[in-house]
Design goal:
alpha+beta, Aminopeptidase, 7-stranded mixed β-sheet, GNAT_dom, GNAT family N-acetyltransferase, Acyl_CoA_acyltransferase, transferase
Length: 156
């Protein structure tokens, strides 16, 4: 698998992200889906990575800068056909490593609080994230879970 910064111009990644947005909107109530549109993922301050196997998109993830020390993980997704193969962990570890290289000392995220999102919450807990209060522009929402990770030079 190859994980690389992606400029979001390939039709395959555009279709992959449209699938992600559609799924998130179908699961989360209006006002509780915080997935970024393609145009928002292309803005300055956002770095987006795609994961590909044999040229096919199998996953993705991004970070959005909150401030010089703090970034938010966005658009984490694994292709349904490739779940339970460790792809999400590899993407997350890549994002953590790149975030440290970019100088961030903290990564945070918002994910759903419902059963559908339990595997995502377990993934983040496995990699050292802990639950936290809402950050940046977020507010308390019974449909959201907020998590954060302090980045240390030795974190792997």
């Amino acid at each position: 698998m190859r994980i690389a910064v992606d400029d979001l111009s390939d039709p395959d990644i555009v279709a992959f992200l449209h699938g992600h947005l559609s799924e998130m909107r179908s699961i989360s109530p209006p006002g509780s889906s915080h997935a970024l549109e393609l145009s928002a993922l292309r803005r300055p301050g956002v770095t987006f990575w795609s994961a590909r196997e044999d040229g096919a998109v199998v996953g993705c993830g991004a970070i959005k800068e909150i401030d010089l020390d703090h970034a938010e993980i966005k658009s984490m997704r694994t292709a349904p056909s490739h779940q339970k193969r460790g792809i999400a962990s590899q993407i997350l570890l890549h994002i953590i490593g790149e975030s440290k290289l970019m100088g961030y000392s903290r990564l945070s995220l918002e994910t759903g609080s419902g059963e559908f999102f339990e595997p995502a919450r377990r993934l983040y807990l496995k990699h050292g994230f802990s639950f936290c209060e809402p950050f940046a522009e977020y507010r308390q929402d019974p449909n959201s879970a907020f998590m954060t990770l302090e980045l240390h030079p030795d974190h792997r």
